């Protein structure tokens, strides 16, 4: 560092006095990797700059939304135009209808959609709706999948399939998670057992089809097929949490990826967020007309929001969705992402570092392991100190990957082959210095 004063450090000290941990979302604090969080001053394209004016190639993209890169001209223009027309009205607008139509056109498994402001809100509302529509209480989720921070979802597996889960956060009473069953991802036998024990009580099964909150772990096709069959058989709703994967892994989202292998495959409900807001607070949940008409004001399931369908956020989301529909968008994005994962793999191999990676569309993950993990337990076996060494080595070289082992990574349309080559070159240097496993 050329500067004597580290402005990130100064800001972090100031932030910690007024914001718990100095951050408004825990992972930003660098607790897992140590060191000082970079305070971002601006971003453009594939890069952002910290408080010291240092540039980083950005592989988190606001944790997914920035699929076009930062400051895409068409999106900036749409937002600027919208801002001049007002920030929020609390009354309906044509733009909300337009965005809903656009989302439904692209996600044919949904007949109707409601717009909200965050993925947490969308996931929480989808579960309430699933329970309201089925008249059942039990909720199945999988260890390592994140669906936002609603009480009923902050839960880890109990001691057995008959016992239900335990809260993972203080402030969540055990009673609140007593209807949440937590199962192992990709474990068909356990899934079957859970349905045979609790089938008639299951309102919904919620899943990240390609999990991005335990790094990057795909649900296997047979596992997904079983989820679909068992939900249908027992009258439970299959809820796809595509807050991360929606319009990130492809124009058909993750449900399209599974439909390629399972003919006619579709979930009953879908939760969206991140990309559909293009970086503004916007999320959505939707499903069949019959289910969605259970929502207020038509039905008995209550849900509301002051800023829902916000005119500036919807302008940002619409402009983003227009760009991703341009011919070749996902082909190019997938190619760039694969270039990164293959480059990192080759660099690691060259340094005899155990490494494996995977990607879909503009989302990727890698592990300092010989084989890809299939569930959270296996992800947990990865070595933290070695990941942290890699993280800081890359950061020192101007490459910003997720500051925690259990997070997916994101490539945007603004990342060039030259950006990827520079990142791979940086990784090659770091792999050479990585402590042995
Ligand atoms: C990010 C995320 C959420 C939560 O969205 P927020 O907008 O952060 O509340 C929910 N589910 C998944 C799969 C996510 O990746």
TrEMBL record:
Tell me the GO BP annotations in alphabetical order: protoporphyrinogen IX biosynthetic process
What reaction(s) does this enzyme catalyze? (S)-4-amino-5-oxopentanoate = 5-aminolevulinate
- Keyword set, alphabetical order: Cytoplasm, Isomerase, Porphyrin biosynthesis, Pyridoxal phosphate
Q: Could you tell me where this protein is found in the cell?
A: Cytoplasm
Give the sites modified to N6-(pyridoxal phosphate)lysine: 274
Q: Which SUPFAM superfamilies match?
A: PLP-dependent transferases
- Kindly state one GO CC term assigned in the UniProt record: cytoplasm
Give the first-level EC class, as a single word: isomerase
User: Per the record's keyword annotation, is Isomerase included, yes or no?
Assistant: yes
Respond yes or no to whether keyword Nucleotide-binding is given for this record: no
Fill in the subunit field for this protein: Homodimer.
- List, alphabetically, the HAMAP family matched: HemL_aminotrans_3 (MF_00375)
User: Could you tell me what this protein is called?
Assistant: Glutamate-1-semialdehyde 2,1-aminomutase
Q: What is the name of the gene encoding this protein?
A: hemL
């Amino acid at each position: 560092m050329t500067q004597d004063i580290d402005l990130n450090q100064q800001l972090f000290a100031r932030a910690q006095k007024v914001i718990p941990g100095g951050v408004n979302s825990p992972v930003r604090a660098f607790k897992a990797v140590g060191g000082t969080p970079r305070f971002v001053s601006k971003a453009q394209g594939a890069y952002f700059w910290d408080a010291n004016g240092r540039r980083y190639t950005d592989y988190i993209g606001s944790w997914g939304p920035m699929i076009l890169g930062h400051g895409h001209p068409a999106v900036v223009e749409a937002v600027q135009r919208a801002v001049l027309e007002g920030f929020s009205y609390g009354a309906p607008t044509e733009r909300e209808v337009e965005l809903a139509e656009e989302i439904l056109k692209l996600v044919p498994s949904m007949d109707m959609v409601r717009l909200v402001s965050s993925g947490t809100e969308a996931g929480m509302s989808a579960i309430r709706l699933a329970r309201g529509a089925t008249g059942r209480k039990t909720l199945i989720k999988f260890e390592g999948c994140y669906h936002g921070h609603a009480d009923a979802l902050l839960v880890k597996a109990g001691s057995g399939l008959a016992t239900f889960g335990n809260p993972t956060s203080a402030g969540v009473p055990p009673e609140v998670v007593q209807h949440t069953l937590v199962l192992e991802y990709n474990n068909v036998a356990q899934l079957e057992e859970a349905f045979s024990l609790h089938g008639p009580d299951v309102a919904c099964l919620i899943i990240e089809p390609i999990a991005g909150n335990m790094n990057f772990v795909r649900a296997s096709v047979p596992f997904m097929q079983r989820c679909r069959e068992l939900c249908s058989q027992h009258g439970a709703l299959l809820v796809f949490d595509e807050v991360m994967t929606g319009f990130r892994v492809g124009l058909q989202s993750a449900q399209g990826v599974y439909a390629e292998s399972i003919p006619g495959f579709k979930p009953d409900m879908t939760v969206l967020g991140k990309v559909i807001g293009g970086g503004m607070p916007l999320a959505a949940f939707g499903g069949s007309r019959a289910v969605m008409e259970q929502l207020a004001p038509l039905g008995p399931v209550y849900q509301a929001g002051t800023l829902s369908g916000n005119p500036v956020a919807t302008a940002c989301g619409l402009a983003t969705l227009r760009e991703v529909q341009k011919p070749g968008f996902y082909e190019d994005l997938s190619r760039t992402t694969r270039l990164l994962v293959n480059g990192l793999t080759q660099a690691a191999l060259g340094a005899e570092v155990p490494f494996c990676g995977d990607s879909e569309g503009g989302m990727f993950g890698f592990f300092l392991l010989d084989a890809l993990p299939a569930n959270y337990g296996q992800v947990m076996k990865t070595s933290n100190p070695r990941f942290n060494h890699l993280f800081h080595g890359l950061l020192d070289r101007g490459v910003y990957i997720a500051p925690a082992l259990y997070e997916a990574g994101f490539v945007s349309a603004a990342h060039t082959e030259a950006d990827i080559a520079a990142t791979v070159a940086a990784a090659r240097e770091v792999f050479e210095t990585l402590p042995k496993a």
